[in-house]
Fold:
Amino acid sequence: MVQQQPHDAGVFQPAQILVALRNKLTGRNVKVEFTISIEDSIYKTNRFGNWNLNQHLQKIQNRQNESVEIQLHLTPADWDDTIWGGDDPSSWGEEIPENRMPKEMYRPVTVTVEMQNNNPQSIYASNSRNLAILNPESKPDQIGEDVWNAALNSISDARNPRILILLQPIWIKAQRFSSRSGTVQSPTLVVVHHTGGQHINSAIYHFTGENARSSAHYIIDRDGQIIKMVMNSKCAWHAGGRRGSYWGGKDHVNHFSIGIEIVHADGSDGNNPFTEEQYGALISLIRNLQRRYSIPRHRVVGHSDVAIPPSHNCPGPNFDWRRLEDEGLGLRPDLNLMISLNPDDFPIKCNSNNPLIKELINDLKEIGYHLPENPSDSEIATAINRFKRHFLAGSRRPRDVSWNRATNGDNVDFNVAQMIKAVRNYVAPLK
Ligand SMILES: [Zn+2]
Structure:
Protein backbone atom coordinates (compact mmCIF):
# COMPACT_ATOMS: atom_id res chain seq x y z
CA MET A 1 0.00 0.00 0.00
CA VAL A 2 1.48 3.29 -1.11
CA GLN A 3 1.21 6.08 1.38
CA GLN A 4 -0.89 8.86 -0.09
CA GLN A 5 0.86 12.17 -0.31
CA PRO A 6 -0.76 14.84 1.78
CA HIS A 7 -2.41 17.36 -0.44
CA ASP A 8 -1.59 20.97 -0.47
CA ALA A 9 -4.74 23.00 -0.32
CA GLY A 10 -3.63 24.83 -3.45
CA VAL A 11 -3.34 21.61 -5.41
CA PHE A 12 -6.78 20.36 -5.90
CA GLN A 13 -6.41 18.47 -9.06
CA PRO A 14 -9.93 17.41 -10.00
CA ALA A 15 -11.06 20.98 -9.69
CA GLN A 16 -8.18 22.12 -11.84
CA ILE A 17 -9.15 19.64 -14.46
CA LEU A 18 -12.72 20.79 -14.41
CA VAL A 19 -11.67 24.41 -14.64
CA ALA A 20 -9.39 23.62 -17.54
CA LEU A 21 -12.17 21.77 -19.28
CA ARG A 22 -14.51 24.65 -18.73
CA ASN A 23 -12.00 27.10 -20.17
CA LYS A 24 -11.46 24.96 -23.22
CA LEU A 25 -15.14 24.66 -23.81
CA THR A 26 -16.17 28.23 -23.21
CA GLY A 27 -17.59 29.70 -26.36
CA ARG A 28 -18.30 26.36 -27.95
CA ASN A 29 -21.87 25.25 -28.21
CA VAL A 30 -21.50 23.37 -25.00
CA LYS A 31 -23.30 23.78 -21.73
CA VAL A 32 -21.39 22.56 -18.71
CA GLU A 33 -22.87 21.59 -15.38
CA PHE A 34 -21.15 20.33 -12.25
CA THR A 35 -22.74 18.22 -9.63
CA ILE A 36 -20.64 17.94 -6.50
CA SER A 37 -21.79 15.53 -3.83
CA ILE A 38 -20.27 15.58 -0.37
CA GLU A 39 -21.87 12.95 1.77
CA ASP A 40 -25.49 13.95 1.79
CA SER A 41 -25.02 17.42 0.28
CA ILE A 42 -25.33 18.06 -3.40
CA TYR A 43 -24.12 21.25 -5.05
CA LYS A 44 -25.27 21.95 -8.56
CA THR A 45 -24.01 24.63 -10.85
CA ASN A 46 -25.81 26.70 -13.36
CA ARG A 47 -24.46 27.24 -16.77
CA PHE A 48 -20.97 28.60 -16.84
CA GLY A 49 -20.76 32.26 -16.09
CA ASN A 50 -23.34 32.02 -13.36
CA TRP A 51 -21.33 29.88 -11.08
CA ASN A 52 -18.71 30.52 -8.48
CA LEU A 53 -16.27 27.65 -8.64
CA ASN A 54 -14.13 28.88 -5.78
CA GLN A 55 -17.05 28.90 -3.44
CA HIS A 56 -17.70 25.26 -4.15
CA LEU A 57 -14.07 24.32 -3.89
CA GLN A 58 -13.98 25.97 -0.51
CA LYS A 59 -16.84 23.80 0.62
CA ILE A 60 -15.03 20.70 -0.55
CA GLN A 61 -11.77 21.69 1.04
CA ASN A 62 -13.43 22.42 4.33
CA ARG A 63 -14.68 18.86 4.45
CA GLN A 64 -11.50 17.05 3.68
CA ASN A 65 -12.27 13.87 5.46
CA GLU A 66 -15.45 13.09 3.69
CA SER A 67 -16.07 11.39 0.42
CA VAL A 68 -16.76 13.69 -2.49
CA GLU A 69 -18.06 12.93 -5.93
CA ILE A 70 -17.82 15.50 -8.68
CA GLN A 71 -19.72 15.07 -11.88
CA LEU A 72 -19.25 17.25 -14.89
CA HIS A 73 -21.91 17.00 -17.52
CA LEU A 74 -21.24 18.46 -20.93
CA THR A 75 -24.26 19.03 -23.11
CA PRO A 76 -24.63 20.89 -26.36
CA ALA A 77 -25.92 24.33 -25.47
CA ASP A 78 -28.65 24.11 -28.08
CA TRP A 79 -29.67 20.68 -27.01
CA ASP A 80 -33.39 20.47 -26.74
CA ASP A 81 -34.74 17.07 -25.91
CA THR A 82 -38.18 17.93 -27.09
CA ILE A 83 -36.85 18.64 -30.56
CA TRP A 84 -33.84 16.42 -30.77
CA GLY A 85 -35.15 13.42 -28.94
CA GLY A 86 -32.12 13.41 -26.69
CA ASP A 87 -29.09 11.40 -27.51
CA ASP A 88 -30.64 9.10 -30.08
CA PRO A 89 -29.71 10.17 -33.60
CA SER A 90 -32.51 8.06 -35.01
CA SER A 91 -34.99 10.47 -33.54
CA TRP A 92 -33.37 13.66 -34.73
CA GLY A 93 -36.02 15.98 -35.95
CA GLU A 94 -36.19 18.15 -38.98
CA GLU A 95 -38.08 20.86 -37.19
CA ILE A 96 -35.14 23.05 -36.29
CA PRO A 97 -34.87 26.06 -38.57
CA GLU A 98 -31.44 26.13 -40.10
CA ASN A 99 -30.49 29.44 -38.57
CA ARG A 100 -30.98 27.93 -35.14
CA MET A 101 -28.57 25.10 -35.83
CA PRO A 102 -25.08 25.46 -34.41
CA LYS A 103 -22.17 24.61 -36.66
CA GLU A 104 -21.20 21.69 -34.49
CA MET A 105 -22.73 19.67 -31.71
CA TYR A 106 -21.09 17.13 -29.45
CA ARG A 107 -22.36 14.12 -27.62
CA PRO A 108 -22.88 14.77 -23.92
CA VAL A 109 -20.07 13.54 -21.73
CA THR A 110 -20.11 12.90 -18.02
CA VAL A 111 -16.84 13.12 -16.11
CA THR A 112 -16.91 11.65 -12.64
CA VAL A 113 -14.20 12.22 -10.06
CA GLU A 114 -14.35 10.36 -6.78
CA MET A 115 -12.48 11.93 -3.88
CA GLN A 116 -11.57 10.53 -0.53
CA ASN A 117 -9.82 12.69 2.04
CA ASN A 118 -9.14 15.19 -0.67
CA ASN A 119 -7.35 12.60 -2.76
CA PRO A 120 -8.75 11.50 -6.08
CA GLN A 121 -9.70 7.86 -5.96
CA SER A 122 -10.88 7.50 -9.49
CA ILE A 123 -11.91 9.48 -12.50
CA TYR A 124 -13.68 8.35 -15.59
CA ALA A 125 -15.43 9.91 -18.51
CA SER A 126 -18.34 8.36 -20.28
CA ASN A 127 -20.95 8.91 -22.85
CA SER A 128 -23.38 6.46 -24.29
CA ARG A 129 -20.74 5.20 -26.68
CA ASN A 130 -17.69 5.06 -24.56
CA LEU A 131 -16.14 8.12 -26.10
CA ALA A 132 -15.96 6.75 -29.59
CA ILE A 133 -13.56 9.19 -31.04
CA LEU A 134 -11.84 10.82 -33.90
CA ASN A 135 -8.43 9.32 -34.37
CA PRO A 136 -5.95 11.83 -32.98
CA GLU A 137 -3.24 10.62 -35.33
CA SER A 138 -4.85 11.85 -38.47
CA LYS A 139 -4.59 15.39 -39.67
CA PRO A 140 -6.04 17.91 -37.24
CA ASP A 141 -8.34 20.26 -39.03
CA GLN A 142 -10.33 23.30 -38.27
CA ILE A 143 -13.20 21.34 -36.72
CA GLY A 144 -10.95 18.97 -34.92
CA GLU A 145 -8.63 21.52 -33.42
CA ASP A 146 -10.80 22.28 -30.44
CA VAL A 147 -11.55 18.63 -30.04
CA TRP A 148 -7.85 17.95 -29.65
CA ASN A 149 -7.62 20.88 -27.28
CA ALA A 150 -10.28 19.33 -25.14
CA ALA A 151 -8.16 16.25 -24.66
CA LEU A 152 -6.89 16.91 -21.19
CA ASN A 153 -4.62 15.35 -18.68
CA SER A 154 -6.52 14.19 -15.72
CA ILE A 155 -6.36 11.71 -12.92
CA SER A 156 -5.77 8.02 -12.66
CA ASP A 157 -3.91 8.27 -9.41
CA ALA A 158 -3.16 11.16 -7.17
CA ARG A 159 0.39 11.72 -8.32
CA ASN A 160 0.35 11.18 -12.05
CA PRO A 161 -3.13 11.80 -13.22
CA ARG A 162 -4.09 11.26 -16.86
CA ILE A 163 -7.29 10.68 -18.71
CA LEU A 164 -7.97 11.53 -22.31
CA ILE A 165 -11.27 13.21 -23.00
CA LEU A 166 -12.15 13.64 -26.63
CA LEU A 167 -15.49 15.01 -27.55
CA GLN A 168 -17.62 12.99 -29.93
CA PRO A 169 -19.30 15.08 -32.58
CA ILE A 170 -22.87 14.23 -33.47
CA TRP A 171 -23.53 17.09 -35.85
CA ILE A 172 -21.02 18.94 -37.99
CA LYS A 173 -22.37 21.12 -40.72
CA ALA A 174 -21.02 20.25 -44.16
CA GLN A 175 -19.68 22.97 -46.39
CA ARG A 176 -21.69 22.12 -49.49
CA PHE A 177 -25.37 21.36 -49.89
CA SER A 178 -28.32 22.98 -51.59
CA SER A 179 -32.09 23.11 -51.52
CA ARG A 180 -33.92 20.11 -52.81
CA SER A 181 -35.62 20.62 -56.14
CA GLY A 182 -39.00 22.27 -55.74
CA THR A 183 -40.88 19.20 -56.90
CA VAL A 184 -39.33 16.99 -54.20
CA GLN A 185 -41.49 16.95 -51.09
CA SER A 186 -39.24 14.59 -49.14
CA PRO A 187 -36.55 12.01 -49.84
CA THR A 188 -37.71 8.82 -51.55
CA LEU A 189 -34.42 6.92 -51.84
CA VAL A 190 -31.48 6.01 -49.60
CA VAL A 191 -28.02 5.79 -51.19
CA VAL A 192 -25.26 3.90 -49.37
CA HIS A 193 -21.58 4.85 -49.83
CA HIS A 194 -18.23 4.02 -48.32
CA THR A 195 -15.77 6.79 -47.53
CA GLY A 196 -12.71 5.11 -48.99
CA GLY A 197 -10.64 5.92 -45.89
CA GLN A 198 -9.88 4.12 -42.65
CA HIS A 199 -10.77 6.93 -40.29
CA ILE A 200 -13.72 9.23 -40.03
CA ASN A 201 -11.46 12.28 -39.77
CA SER A 202 -10.55 12.34 -43.41
CA ALA A 203 -14.21 12.18 -44.42
CA ILE A 204 -15.18 15.00 -42.05
CA TYR A 205 -12.18 16.98 -43.19
CA HIS A 206 -13.20 16.43 -46.77
CA PHE A 207 -16.81 17.50 -46.26
CA THR A 208 -16.02 20.56 -44.17
CA GLY A 209 -13.07 21.93 -46.12
CA GLU A 210 -13.27 25.25 -47.93
CA ASN A 211 -12.86 23.49 -51.24
CA ALA A 212 -15.30 20.69 -50.56
CA ARG A 213 -17.21 19.62 -53.65
CA SER A 214 -19.34 16.94 -52.02
CA SER A 215 -21.22 16.11 -48.84
CA ALA A 216 -23.46 13.48 -47.29
CA HIS A 217 -26.30 13.55 -44.80
CA TYR A 218 -24.70 11.01 -42.47
CA ILE A 219 -21.38 9.32 -41.80
CA ILE A 220 -21.24 6.06 -39.85
CA ASP A 221 -17.98 5.51 -37.99
CA ARG A 222 -16.32 2.12 -37.49
CA ASP A 223 -17.91 1.79 -34.05
CA GLY A 224 -21.38 2.59 -35.32
CA GLN A 225 -21.39 6.20 -34.20
CA ILE A 226 -23.53 8.27 -36.54
CA ILE A 227 -22.59 11.86 -37.37
CA LYS A 228 -25.04 14.05 -39.19
CA MET A 229 -23.69 16.67 -41.61
CA VAL A 230 -26.61 17.82 -43.76
CA MET A 231 -30.25 18.21 -42.75
CA ASN A 232 -32.53 15.66 -44.37
CA SER A 233 -34.60 18.45 -45.84
CA LYS A 234 -31.56 19.62 -47.84
CA CYS A 235 -29.90 18.19 -50.91
CA ALA A 236 -26.47 16.72 -50.09
CA TRP A 237 -23.98 16.32 -52.90
CA HIS A 238 -23.21 12.64 -52.72
CA ALA A 239 -24.46 10.73 -55.73
CA GLY A 240 -23.65 12.90 -58.73
CA GLY A 241 -25.56 15.68 -60.45
CA ARG A 242 -28.00 15.72 -63.31
CA ARG A 243 -25.77 13.93 -65.80
CA GLY A 244 -24.01 11.88 -63.18
CA SER A 245 -26.79 9.86 -61.61
CA TYR A 246 -30.08 8.15 -62.30
CA TRP A 247 -32.50 5.82 -60.57
CA GLY A 248 -36.00 4.60 -61.30
CA GLY A 249 -36.78 6.98 -64.14
CA LYS A 250 -35.22 10.12 -62.67
CA ASP A 251 -31.82 11.72 -62.97
CA HIS A 252 -30.14 13.97 -60.41
CA VAL A 253 -30.41 11.47 -57.58
CA ASN A 254 -29.12 13.96 -54.98
CA HIS A 255 -32.39 15.83 -55.15
CA PHE A 256 -34.58 12.96 -53.99
CA SER A 257 -32.22 10.91 -51.85
CA ILE A 258 -30.49 10.66 -48.49
CA GLY A 259 -26.76 9.90 -48.68
CA ILE A 260 -25.14 7.73 -46.01
CA GLU A 261 -21.36 7.34 -45.96
CA ILE A 262 -19.85 4.41 -44.07
CA VAL A 263 -16.24 4.69 -42.93
CA HIS A 264 -14.43 1.98 -44.84
CA ALA A 265 -11.22 1.79 -46.85
CA ASP A 266 -11.43 0.34 -50.32
CA GLY A 267 -9.71 -3.01 -50.17
CA SER A 268 -11.20 -4.31 -53.40
CA ASP A 269 -8.79 -7.23 -53.40
CA GLY A 270 -8.53 -7.86 -49.70
CA ASN A 271 -11.09 -8.95 -47.20
CA ASN A 272 -11.95 -5.83 -45.28
CA PRO A 273 -15.34 -6.27 -43.66
CA PHE A 274 -17.64 -3.51 -42.53
CA THR A 275 -18.15 -3.79 -38.77
CA GLU A 276 -21.18 -5.28 -37.03
CA GLU A 277 -21.73 -1.92 -35.39
CA GLN A 278 -21.83 -0.23 -38.79
CA TYR A 279 -24.45 -2.64 -40.11
CA GLY A 280 -26.48 -2.20 -36.94
CA ALA A 281 -26.33 1.59 -37.08
CA LEU A 282 -27.07 1.65 -40.81
CA ILE A 283 -30.10 -0.59 -40.45
CA SER A 284 -31.62 1.43 -37.64
CA LEU A 285 -30.91 4.70 -39.43
CA ILE A 286 -32.51 3.47 -42.66
CA ARG A 287 -35.53 2.13 -40.78
CA ASN A 288 -35.99 5.46 -39.13
CA LEU A 289 -35.69 7.38 -42.39
CA GLN A 290 -38.16 5.02 -44.04
CA ARG A 291 -40.67 5.53 -41.29
CA ARG A 292 -40.24 9.26 -41.27
CA TYR A 293 -40.50 9.77 -45.02
CA SER A 294 -42.44 6.67 -46.09
CA ILE A 295 -39.55 5.57 -48.29
CA PRO A 296 -40.56 2.24 -49.87
CA ARG A 297 -38.56 -0.65 -48.50
CA HIS A 298 -36.88 -1.56 -51.78
CA ARG A 299 -35.63 2.01 -52.32
CA VAL A 300 -32.21 1.53 -50.71
CA VAL A 301 -29.35 1.29 -53.21
CA GLY A 302 -25.60 1.79 -53.52
CA HIS A 303 -23.80 4.67 -55.14
CA SER A 304 -22.63 2.25 -57.84
CA ASP A 305 -26.26 1.44 -58.68
CA VAL A 306 -27.09 5.06 -59.48
CA ALA A 307 -23.81 6.51 -60.79
CA ILE A 308 -23.80 7.08 -64.52
CA PRO A 309 -20.02 7.00 -65.01
CA PRO A 310 -19.08 3.35 -65.45
CA SER A 311 -16.83 1.43 -63.06
CA HIS A 312 -18.04 3.21 -59.98
CA ASN A 313 -17.10 1.09 -56.95
CA CYS A 314 -19.09 2.35 -54.00
CA PRO A 315 -19.87 0.99 -51.40
CA GLY A 316 -17.68 -1.67 -53.00
CA PRO A 317 -17.03 -5.39 -52.90
CA ASN A 318 -16.95 -5.76 -49.13
CA PHE A 319 -20.37 -4.35 -48.44
CA ASP A 320 -22.75 -7.23 -47.79
CA TRP A 321 -26.15 -6.24 -49.10
CA ARG A 322 -27.59 -9.45 -47.70
CA ARG A 323 -27.39 -7.85 -44.27
CA LEU A 324 -30.00 -5.35 -45.43
CA GLU A 325 -31.96 -7.93 -47.41
CA ASP A 326 -32.33 -10.03 -44.26
CA GLU A 327 -34.01 -7.02 -42.66
CA GLY A 328 -36.33 -6.54 -45.61
CA LEU A 329 -34.43 -3.45 -46.78
CA GLY A 330 -33.28 -2.60 -50.27
CA LEU A 331 -33.25 -4.61 -53.46
CA ARG A 332 -33.44 -8.36 -53.03
CA PRO A 333 -34.00 -11.43 -55.17
CA ASP A 334 -37.34 -13.22 -55.10
CA LEU A 335 -36.48 -16.75 -56.18
CA ASN A 336 -39.94 -18.14 -55.47
CA LEU A 337 -41.43 -16.91 -58.72
CA MET A 338 -40.86 -18.76 -61.97
CA ILE A 339 -37.72 -17.84 -63.81
CA SER A 340 -37.71 -19.29 -67.29
CA LEU A 341 -34.06 -19.26 -68.22
CA ASN A 342 -32.09 -22.14 -69.65
CA PRO A 343 -28.55 -22.49 -68.26
CA ASP A 344 -27.42 -23.84 -71.60
CA ASP A 345 -28.06 -20.45 -73.21
CA PHE A 346 -25.31 -18.83 -71.12
CA PRO A 347 -22.95 -17.02 -70.99
CA ILE A 348 -24.14 -14.48 -73.54
CA LYS A 349 -22.61 -11.30 -74.87
CA CYS A 350 -24.19 -7.90 -74.17
CA ASN A 351 -25.56 -7.56 -77.67
CA SER A 352 -28.65 -5.47 -78.24
CA ASN A 353 -29.89 -7.88 -80.93
CA ASN A 354 -30.01 -10.85 -78.59
CA PRO A 355 -33.63 -11.40 -77.45
CA LEU A 356 -32.49 -12.64 -74.03
CA ILE A 357 -30.44 -9.45 -73.57
CA LYS A 358 -33.48 -7.40 -74.60
CA GLU A 359 -35.45 -9.12 -71.88
CA LEU A 360 -32.75 -8.45 -69.29
CA ILE A 361 -32.59 -4.78 -70.35
CA ASN A 362 -36.27 -4.43 -69.59
CA ASP A 363 -35.81 -6.15 -66.25
CA LEU A 364 -32.94 -3.84 -65.30
CA LYS A 365 -34.99 -0.80 -66.28
CA GLU A 366 -37.87 -2.02 -64.21
CA ILE A 367 -35.59 -2.46 -61.21
CA GLY A 368 -34.44 1.16 -61.65
CA TYR A 369 -31.11 1.05 -63.51
CA HIS A 370 -30.13 3.63 -66.09
CA LEU A 371 -30.40 2.51 -69.71
CA PRO A 372 -30.93 4.94 -72.56
CA GLU A 373 -33.40 4.30 -75.36
CA ASN A 374 -31.84 1.85 -77.83
CA PRO A 375 -28.71 1.34 -75.77
CA SER A 376 -25.42 0.48 -77.42
CA ASP A 377 -23.72 -2.78 -76.53
CA SER A 378 -21.32 -1.00 -74.21
CA GLU A 379 -24.18 0.85 -72.47
CA ILE A 380 -25.83 -2.51 -71.89
CA ALA A 381 -22.62 -3.92 -70.46
CA THR A 382 -22.31 -0.88 -68.16
CA ALA A 383 -25.81 -1.43 -66.77
CA ILE A 384 -25.19 -5.15 -66.23
CA ASN A 385 -21.94 -4.33 -64.44
CA ARG A 386 -23.70 -1.87 -62.14
CA PHE A 387 -25.99 -4.72 -61.18
CA LYS A 388 -23.02 -7.03 -60.60
CA ARG A 389 -21.35 -4.53 -58.26
CA HIS A 390 -24.39 -4.77 -56.05
CA PHE A 391 -25.31 -8.42 -56.28
CA LEU A 392 -21.84 -9.95 -56.40
CA ALA A 393 -20.60 -7.96 -53.39
CA GLY A 394 -20.19 -9.14 -49.80
CA SER A 395 -21.18 -12.73 -49.09
CA ARG A 396 -22.12 -13.34 -52.74
CA ARG A 397 -18.68 -12.38 -53.92
CA PRO A 398 -17.07 -15.00 -56.16
CA ARG A 399 -13.84 -16.23 -54.61
CA ASP A 400 -12.21 -17.60 -57.74
CA VAL A 401 -11.90 -14.38 -59.74
CA SER A 402 -10.81 -10.85 -58.95
CA TRP A 403 -13.47 -8.25 -58.22
CA ASN A 404 -12.56 -6.37 -61.38
CA ARG A 405 -12.99 -9.44 -63.52
CA ALA A 406 -16.23 -10.37 -61.80
CA THR A 407 -17.80 -6.95 -62.33
CA ASN A 408 -16.42 -5.78 -65.65
CA GLY A 409 -16.58 -7.25 -69.13
CA ASP A 410 -19.41 -7.67 -71.60
CA ASN A 411 -20.73 -11.08 -70.67
CA VAL A 412 -23.74 -12.23 -68.71
CA ASP A 413 -23.62 -15.65 -67.12
CA PHE A 414 -26.57 -17.73 -65.99
CA ASN A 415 -26.15 -16.83 -62.35
CA VAL A 416 -26.29 -13.08 -62.99
CA ALA A 417 -29.19 -13.36 -65.46
CA GLN A 418 -31.16 -15.40 -62.96
CA MET A 419 -30.45 -12.85 -60.24
CA ILE A 420 -31.62 -9.98 -62.47
CA LYS A 421 -34.89 -11.86 -63.05
CA ALA A 422 -35.28 -12.59 -59.35
CA VAL A 423 -34.69 -8.96 -58.29
CA ARG A 424 -37.12 -7.77 -60.93
CA ASN A 425 -39.65 -10.24 -59.50
CA TYR A 426 -39.18 -8.67 -56.10
CA VAL A 427 -39.35 -5.04 -57.21
CA ALA A 428 -42.17 -5.17 -59.76
CA PRO A 429 -45.06 -5.70 -57.31
CA LEU A 430 -43.75 -2.96 -55.03
CA LYS A 431 -43.88 -0.20 -57.63
ZN1 LIG B 1 -20.04 6.97 -53.08
